[in-house]
Protein backbone atom coordinates (compact mmCIF):
# COMPACT_ATOMS: atom_id res chain seq x y z
CA UNK A 1 0.00 0.00 0.00
CA UNK A 2 2.72 2.56 0.78
CA UNK A 3 4.27 1.74 -2.61
CA UNK A 4 0.98 2.31 -4.43
CA UNK A 5 0.44 5.57 -2.53
CA UNK A 6 3.90 6.77 -3.57
CA UNK A 7 3.15 5.96 -7.23
CA UNK A 8 -0.14 7.88 -7.03
CA UNK A 9 1.60 10.94 -5.57
CA UNK A 10 4.22 10.86 -8.34
CA UNK A 11 1.52 10.62 -11.00
CA UNK A 12 -0.40 13.49 -9.44
CA UNK A 13 2.78 15.60 -9.33
CA UNK A 14 3.53 14.83 -12.99
CA UNK A 15 -0.01 15.74 -13.96
CA UNK A 16 0.27 19.03 -12.05
CA UNK A 17 3.60 19.82 -13.75
CA UNK A 18 2.14 19.06 -17.18
CA UNK A 19 -0.89 21.21 -16.42
CA UNK A 20 1.36 24.06 -15.26
CA UNK A 21 3.45 23.93 -18.42
CA UNK A 22 0.29 23.71 -20.50
CA UNK A 23 -1.11 26.82 -18.86
CA UNK A 24 2.26 28.57 -19.21
CA UNK A 25 2.42 27.76 -22.92
CA UNK A 26 -1.17 28.93 -23.35
CA UNK A 27 -0.39 32.21 -21.56
CA UNK A 28 2.74 32.76 -23.66
CA UNK A 29 0.80 31.96 -26.82
CA UNK A 30 -1.96 34.36 -25.84
CA UNK A 31 0.55 37.12 -25.10
CA UNK A 32 2.28 36.58 -28.44
CA UNK A 33 -1.03 36.69 -30.30
CA UNK A 34 -2.04 39.82 -28.36
CA UNK A 35 1.25 41.60 -29.08
CA UNK A 36 1.06 40.60 -32.75
CA UNK A 37 -2.52 41.87 -32.93
CA UNK A 38 -1.54 45.15 -31.27
CA UNK A 39 1.40 45.55 -33.61
CA UNK A 40 -0.82 45.00 -36.65
CA UNK A 41 -3.41 47.42 -35.25
CA UNK A 42 -0.76 50.11 -34.73
CA UNK A 43 0.61 49.57 -38.23
CA UNK A 44 -2.92 49.82 -39.62
CA UNK A 45 -3.60 53.02 -37.65
CA UNK A 46 -0.33 54.55 -38.83
CA UNK A 47 -1.25 53.67 -42.40
CA UNK A 48 -4.73 55.13 -41.95
CA UNK A 49 -3.29 58.35 -40.53
CA UNK A 50 -0.89 58.70 -43.44
CA UNK A 51 -3.74 58.27 -45.93
CA UNK A 52 -6.01 60.59 -43.93
CA UNK A 53 -3.33 63.29 -43.82
CA UNK A 54 -2.97 63.07 -47.60
CA UNK A 55 -6.74 63.35 -48.04
CA UNK A 56 -6.91 66.36 -45.74
CA UNK A 57 -4.15 68.07 -47.71
CA UNK A 58 -6.03 67.43 -50.95
CA UNK A 59 -9.33 68.53 -49.36
CA UNK A 60 -7.89 71.97 -48.53
CA UNK A 61 -8.29 72.85 -52.20
CA UNK A 62 -11.45 70.86 -52.82
CA UNK A 63 -14.20 72.56 -54.83
CA UNK A 64 -17.54 71.20 -56.03
CA UNK A 65 -17.37 69.93 -59.59
CA UNK A 66 -13.58 69.60 -59.52
CA UNK A 67 -11.73 66.26 -59.28
CA UNK A 68 -12.42 64.62 -55.95
CA UNK A 69 -9.51 64.41 -53.46
CA UNK A 70 -9.84 60.64 -53.26
CA UNK A 71 -8.91 60.29 -56.92
CA UNK A 72 -5.44 61.62 -56.13
CA UNK A 73 -5.03 59.01 -53.36
CA UNK A 74 -6.32 55.71 -54.84
CA UNK A 75 -5.29 53.82 -51.70
CA UNK A 76 -8.06 55.60 -49.79
CA UNK A 77 -10.79 53.82 -51.77
CA UNK A 78 -9.99 50.57 -49.99
CA UNK A 79 -10.67 52.06 -46.57
CA UNK A 80 -13.20 54.82 -47.14
CA UNK A 81 -16.11 52.73 -45.85
CA UNK A 82 -14.19 51.23 -42.92
CA UNK A 83 -15.44 52.68 -39.57
CA UNK A 84 -11.96 52.87 -38.06
CA UNK A 85 -10.54 54.75 -41.03
CA UNK A 86 -13.51 57.11 -41.16
CA UNK A 87 -12.99 57.90 -37.49
CA UNK A 88 -9.32 58.63 -38.16
CA UNK A 89 -10.23 60.85 -41.12
CA UNK A 90 -12.77 62.84 -39.10
CA UNK A 91 -10.18 63.39 -36.36
CA UNK A 92 -7.69 64.75 -38.89
CA UNK A 93 -10.29 66.97 -40.56
CA UNK A 94 -11.41 68.48 -37.25
CA UNK A 95 -7.81 69.04 -36.12
CA UNK A 96 -7.02 70.81 -39.38
CA UNK A 97 -10.23 72.84 -39.30
CA UNK A 98 -9.40 74.23 -35.85
CA UNK A 99 -6.34 75.94 -37.31
CA UNK A 100 -7.79 77.22 -40.59
CA UNK A 101 -10.21 79.84 -41.89
CA UNK A 102 -11.40 81.04 -45.27
CA UNK A 103 -11.34 78.98 -48.47
CA UNK A 104 -9.16 76.21 -47.03
CA UNK A 105 -11.52 75.66 -44.10
CA UNK A 106 -14.51 75.71 -46.47
CA UNK A 107 -12.83 73.00 -48.56
CA UNK A 108 -12.54 70.76 -45.52
CA UNK A 109 -16.22 71.22 -44.71
CA UNK A 110 -17.28 70.42 -48.29
CA UNK A 111 -15.14 67.29 -48.29
CA UNK A 112 -16.56 66.24 -44.90
CA UNK A 113 -20.07 66.42 -46.33
CA UNK A 114 -19.08 64.80 -49.64
CA UNK A 115 -18.06 61.63 -47.80
CA UNK A 116 -21.14 61.95 -45.55
CA UNK A 117 -18.91 61.98 -42.50
CA UNK A 118 -21.53 64.11 -40.75
CA UNK A 119 -23.57 60.89 -40.49
CA UNK A 120 -20.80 59.38 -38.38
CA UNK A 121 -20.77 62.44 -36.11
CA UNK A 122 -24.57 62.41 -35.84
CA UNK A 123 -24.42 58.75 -34.86
CA UNK A 124 -22.08 59.68 -32.00
CA UNK A 125 -24.45 62.43 -30.95
CA UNK A 126 -27.18 59.78 -30.58
CA UNK A 127 -24.95 57.47 -28.53
CA UNK A 128 -25.85 56.75 -24.88
CA UNK A 129 -22.12 56.90 -24.07
CA UNK A 130 -21.23 60.38 -22.82
CA UNK A 131 -17.75 60.50 -24.36
CA UNK A 132 -19.09 59.63 -27.83
CA UNK A 133 -21.93 62.12 -27.51
CA UNK A 134 -19.51 64.88 -26.49
CA UNK A 135 -17.15 64.02 -29.33
CA UNK A 136 -20.01 64.04 -31.84
CA UNK A 137 -21.07 67.51 -30.69
CA UNK A 138 -17.52 68.82 -31.05
CA UNK A 139 -17.16 67.40 -34.56
CA UNK A 140 -20.48 68.79 -35.78
CA UNK A 141 -19.64 72.24 -34.39
CA UNK A 142 -16.18 72.52 -35.91
CA UNK A 143 -17.44 71.20 -39.25
CA UNK A 144 -20.19 73.87 -39.24
CA UNK A 145 -23.21 71.55 -39.30
CA UNK A 146 -25.81 74.16 -38.33
CA UNK A 147 -28.68 71.85 -39.23
CA UNK A 148 -27.93 70.01 -35.97
CA UNK A 149 -28.50 73.14 -33.85
CA UNK A 150 -31.65 71.91 -32.10
CA UNK A 151 -30.18 68.55 -31.18
CA UNK A 152 -27.04 70.20 -29.79
CA UNK A 153 -28.88 73.01 -28.02
CA UNK A 154 -30.91 70.62 -25.86
CA UNK A 155 -27.65 69.39 -24.32
CA UNK A 156 -26.49 72.84 -23.13
CA UNK A 157 -28.08 72.03 -19.76
CA UNK A 158 -27.20 68.33 -19.71
CA UNK A 159 -26.41 66.86 -16.29
CA UNK A 160 -23.15 65.47 -17.60
CA UNK A 161 -20.52 68.21 -17.34
CA UNK A 162 -18.56 67.10 -20.41
CA UNK A 163 -21.61 66.88 -22.68
CA UNK A 164 -22.91 70.20 -21.36
CA UNK A 165 -19.55 71.87 -21.88
CA UNK A 166 -19.19 70.71 -25.49
CA UNK A 167 -22.79 71.69 -26.32
CA UNK A 168 -22.32 75.22 -24.96
CA UNK A 169 -19.03 75.65 -26.82
CA UNK A 170 -20.64 74.27 -29.98
CA UNK A 171 -23.52 76.77 -29.90
CA UNK A 172 -21.05 79.63 -29.46
CA UNK A 173 -18.82 78.15 -32.18
CA UNK A 174 -21.74 78.10 -34.61
CA UNK A 175 -23.48 81.38 -33.71
CA UNK A 176 -21.03 83.57 -31.82
CA UNK A 177 -22.61 86.02 -29.38
CA UNK A 178 -26.08 84.93 -30.47
CA UNK A 179 -25.22 81.47 -29.20
CA UNK A 180 -25.17 82.77 -25.63
CA UNK A 181 -28.94 82.49 -25.53
CA UNK A 182 -28.45 79.22 -23.63
CA UNK A 183 -27.68 81.43 -20.61
CA UNK A 184 -31.40 82.17 -20.46
CA UNK A 185 -32.23 78.59 -19.51
CA UNK A 186 -29.13 76.88 -18.09
CA UNK A 187 -29.54 75.83 -14.47
CA UNK A 188 -26.44 73.64 -14.16
CA UNK A 189 -23.26 75.46 -12.99
CA UNK A 190 -20.83 76.87 -15.54
CA UNK A 191 -17.36 76.20 -14.16
CA UNK A 192 -14.69 78.91 -14.16
CA UNK A 193 -12.69 76.87 -16.68
CA UNK A 194 -15.74 76.59 -18.94
CA UNK A 195 -16.29 80.35 -18.69
CA UNK A 196 -12.70 80.91 -19.84
CA UNK A 197 -13.21 78.58 -22.80
CA UNK A 198 -16.44 80.31 -23.78
CA UNK A 199 -14.79 83.73 -23.63
CA UNK A 200 -11.94 82.47 -25.82
CA UNK A 201 -14.43 81.14 -28.39
CA UNK A 202 -16.51 84.32 -28.56
CA UNK A 203 -15.83 87.05 -31.16
CA UNK A 204 -14.07 90.21 -30.02
CA UNK A 205 -16.96 92.51 -30.95
CA UNK A 206 -20.06 92.34 -28.78
CA UNK A 207 -22.83 93.43 -31.12
CA UNK A 208 -26.51 93.50 -30.17
CA UNK A 209 -26.49 90.06 -28.53
CA UNK A 210 -25.15 91.36 -25.20
CA UNK A 211 -28.34 93.28 -24.52
CA UNK A 212 -29.35 90.09 -22.74
CA UNK A 213 -26.86 90.84 -19.97
CA UNK A 214 -29.51 92.66 -17.93
CA UNK A 215 -31.51 89.44 -17.67
CA UNK A 216 -28.44 87.28 -17.04
CA UNK A 217 -27.45 89.52 -14.11
CA UNK A 218 -30.75 88.54 -12.47
CA UNK A 219 -30.37 84.80 -13.15
CA UNK A 220 -31.06 82.26 -10.41
CA UNK A 221 -27.81 80.58 -11.47
CA UNK A 222 -24.83 82.35 -9.79
CA UNK A 223 -22.39 81.11 -12.43
CA UNK A 224 -24.48 82.76 -15.16
CA UNK A 225 -24.27 86.06 -13.27
CA UNK A 226 -20.49 85.68 -12.87
CA UNK A 227 -20.11 85.04 -16.59
CA UNK A 228 -22.32 88.02 -17.48
CA UNK A 229 -20.18 90.20 -15.23
CA UNK A 230 -17.07 89.12 -17.13
CA UNK A 231 -18.75 89.97 -20.43
CA UNK A 232 -19.75 93.41 -19.15
CA UNK A 233 -16.19 94.07 -17.99
CA UNK A 234 -14.45 92.81 -21.14
CA UNK A 235 -16.70 94.80 -23.46
CA UNK A 236 -16.80 97.87 -21.16
CA UNK A 237 -20.59 98.05 -21.04
CA UNK A 238 -20.85 101.23 -18.96
CA UNK A 239 -24.60 101.42 -19.56
CA UNK A 240 -25.08 98.41 -17.26
CA UNK A 241 -23.22 99.98 -14.32
CA UNK A 242 -26.24 100.22 -12.03
CA UNK A 243 -27.45 96.69 -12.87
CA UNK A 244 -23.97 95.38 -12.13
CA UNK A 245 -23.74 97.35 -8.86
CA UNK A 246 -26.95 95.66 -7.67
CA UNK A 247 -24.99 92.38 -7.58
CA UNK A 248 -22.81 93.71 -4.74
CA UNK A 249 -25.50 92.43 -2.39
CA UNK A 250 -25.78 88.98 -3.95
CA UNK A 251 -25.82 86.02 -1.56
CA UNK A 252 -22.95 84.28 -3.41
CA UNK A 253 -19.50 85.50 -2.32
CA UNK A 254 -17.90 84.73 -5.69
CA UNK A 255 -20.50 86.81 -7.47
CA UNK A 256 -19.79 89.75 -5.15
CA UNK A 257 -16.05 89.55 -5.85
CA UNK A 258 -16.66 89.30 -9.60
CA UNK A 259 -18.95 92.31 -9.34
CA UNK A 260 -16.13 94.37 -7.81
CA UNK A 261 -13.81 93.34 -10.65
CA UNK A 262 -16.44 94.27 -13.22
CA UNK A 263 -17.18 97.67 -11.65
CA UNK A 264 -13.46 98.41 -11.73
CA UNK A 265 -13.71 98.31 -15.55
CA UNK A 266 -16.99 100.24 -15.95
CA UNK A 267 -16.68 102.65 -13.03
CA UNK A 268 -18.27 106.07 -12.66
CA UNK A 269 -18.24 108.72 -9.93
CA UNK A 270 -20.44 106.59 -7.65
CA UNK A 271 -18.49 103.34 -7.87
CA UNK A 272 -15.88 103.80 -5.12
CA UNK A 273 -18.54 104.80 -2.60
CA UNK A 274 -20.63 101.72 -3.43
CA UNK A 275 -17.62 99.43 -2.97
CA UNK A 276 -16.59 101.03 0.32
CA UNK A 277 -20.12 100.86 1.78
CA UNK A 278 -20.10 97.05 1.49
CA UNK A 279 -16.53 96.63 2.73
CA UNK A 280 -17.17 95.95 6.46
CA UNK A 281 -19.78 93.24 5.93
CA UNK A 282 -17.79 91.14 3.46
CA UNK A 283 -15.07 88.50 3.59
CA UNK A 284 -11.38 88.84 2.84
CA UNK A 285 -11.64 88.09 -0.90
CA UNK A 286 -14.10 90.97 -1.32
CA UNK A 287 -11.89 93.33 0.70
CA UNK A 288 -8.83 92.49 -1.37
CA UNK A 289 -10.77 93.03 -4.59
CA UNK A 290 -12.06 96.41 -3.36
CA UNK A 291 -8.62 97.68 -2.35
CA UNK A 292 -7.18 96.65 -5.71
CA UNK A 293 -10.11 98.28 -7.52
CA UNK A 294 -9.81 101.59 -5.65
CA UNK A 295 -6.24 101.97 -6.90
CA UNK A 296 -7.45 101.50 -10.49
CA UNK A 297 -10.54 103.71 -10.19
CA UNK A 298 -8.40 106.53 -8.81
CA UNK A 299 -11.13 108.39 -6.92
CA UNK A 300 -9.81 110.99 -4.49
CA UNK A 301 -12.86 110.42 -2.30
CA UNK A 302 -11.43 107.04 -1.23
CA UNK A 303 -8.33 108.54 0.46
CA UNK A 304 -9.82 108.70 3.97
CA UNK A 305 -11.11 105.13 3.71
CA UNK A 306 -7.71 103.84 2.59
CA UNK A 307 -6.05 105.66 5.49
CA UNK A 308 -8.51 103.94 7.82
CA UNK A 309 -7.52 100.54 6.34
CA UNK A 310 -3.87 101.40 6.98
CA UNK A 311 -4.61 101.78 10.67
CA UNK A 312 -7.14 99.04 11.30
CA UNK A 313 -6.56 96.00 9.08
CA UNK A 314 -3.87 93.29 8.95
CA UNK A 315 -0.55 93.86 7.24
CA UNK A 316 -1.46 92.33 3.86
CA UNK A 317 -4.57 94.52 3.59
CA UNK A 318 -2.52 97.49 4.81
CA UNK A 319 -0.13 96.91 1.89
CA UNK A 320 -3.01 96.83 -0.60
CA UNK A 321 -4.35 100.08 0.85
CA UNK A 322 -0.89 101.69 0.62
CA UNK A 323 -0.57 100.56 -3.00
CA UNK A 324 -3.99 102.03 -3.81
CA UNK A 325 -2.99 105.36 -2.24
CA UNK A 326 0.30 105.37 -4.14
CA UNK A 327 -1.63 104.90 -7.40
CA UNK A 328 -3.88 107.89 -6.68
CA UNK A 329 -1.11 110.27 -7.65
CA UNK A 330 -0.11 113.36 -5.70
CA UNK A 331 -3.16 113.29 -3.43
CA UNK A 332 -2.50 109.69 -2.43
CA UNK A 333 1.25 109.96 -1.95
CA UNK A 334 0.80 113.16 0.07
CA UNK A 335 -1.60 111.30 2.34
CA UNK A 336 0.97 108.53 2.81
CA UNK A 337 3.83 110.88 3.58
CA UNK A 338 1.79 113.09 5.91
CA UNK A 339 0.52 110.19 8.01
CA UNK A 340 2.28 109.89 11.37
CA UNK A 341 2.44 106.13 10.83
CA UNK A 342 5.18 106.58 8.25
CA UNK A 343 7.82 106.50 11.01
CA UNK A 344 6.48 103.42 12.82
CA UNK A 345 6.84 99.70 12.15
CA UNK A 346 5.36 97.98 10.18
CA UNK A 347 3.81 100.98 8.42
CA UNK A 348 7.17 102.48 7.49
CA UNK A 349 8.13 99.36 5.54
CA UNK A 350 4.65 98.91 4.02
CA UNK A 351 4.48 102.52 2.83
CA UNK A 352 8.04 102.45 1.48
CA UNK A 353 7.32 99.25 -0.46
CA UNK A 354 4.11 100.66 -1.95
CA UNK A 355 5.89 103.83 -3.07
CA UNK A 356 8.86 101.95 -4.57
CA UNK A 357 6.52 99.64 -6.52
CA UNK A 358 4.80 102.65 -8.03
CA UNK A 359 8.12 104.04 -9.28
CA UNK A 360 9.11 100.84 -11.12
Brief characterization of the structure:
The protein has 360 residues and is mainly alpha-helical. It is built from 19 helices and no strands.
Question: Which secondary structure elements does this structure contain, and how are they paired or packed?
Answer:
Layout: H1 2-59, H2 69-72, H3 83-97, H4 102-114, H5 117-125, H6 130-142, H7 149-153, H8 161-175, H9 192-201, H10 213-216, H11 222-234, H12 241-245, H13 253-265, H14 271-277, H15 284-297, H16 303-312, H17 315-327, H18 330-338, H19 347-359
Helix pairs in contact: 1-3, 3-4, 5-6, 6-8, 8-9, 11-13, 13-15, 14-15, 15-17, 16-17, 17-18, 17-19
- Assign the structural class, choosing from mainly alpha, mainly beta, alpha/beta, alpha+beta, or little secondary structure: mainly alpha
Number of helices: 19
- Averaged pLDDT, please? 87
Terminus-to-terminus distance: 102 Å
The value of Rg in angstroms is 32 Å
- Low-pLDDT sequence parts: none
Oligomer: single chain
* Overall morphology: extended
What features would you describe in this structure?
- The protein has helices at 2-59, 69-72, 83-97, 102-114, 117-125, 130-142, 149-153, 161-175, 192-201, 213-216, 222-234, 241-245, 253-265, 271-277, 284-297, 303-312, 315-327, 330-338, 347-359.
- With 360 residues, the protein is an all-alpha fold.
Write a concise keyword list for the protein shown above.
0% strand; mainly alpha; 68% helix; 360 residues
Amino acid sequence: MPHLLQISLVNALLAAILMFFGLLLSAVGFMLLYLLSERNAQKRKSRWKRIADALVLAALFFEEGVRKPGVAIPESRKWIHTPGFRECLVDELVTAKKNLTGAAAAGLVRFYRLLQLEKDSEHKLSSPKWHLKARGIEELAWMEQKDQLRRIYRHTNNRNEFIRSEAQLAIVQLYGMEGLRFLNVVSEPISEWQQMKLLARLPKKAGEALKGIRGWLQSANPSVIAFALQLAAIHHLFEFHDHVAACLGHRDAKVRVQTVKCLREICNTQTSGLLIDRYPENDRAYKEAVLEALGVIGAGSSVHFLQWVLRNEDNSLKLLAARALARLGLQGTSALEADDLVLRYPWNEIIQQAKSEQKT
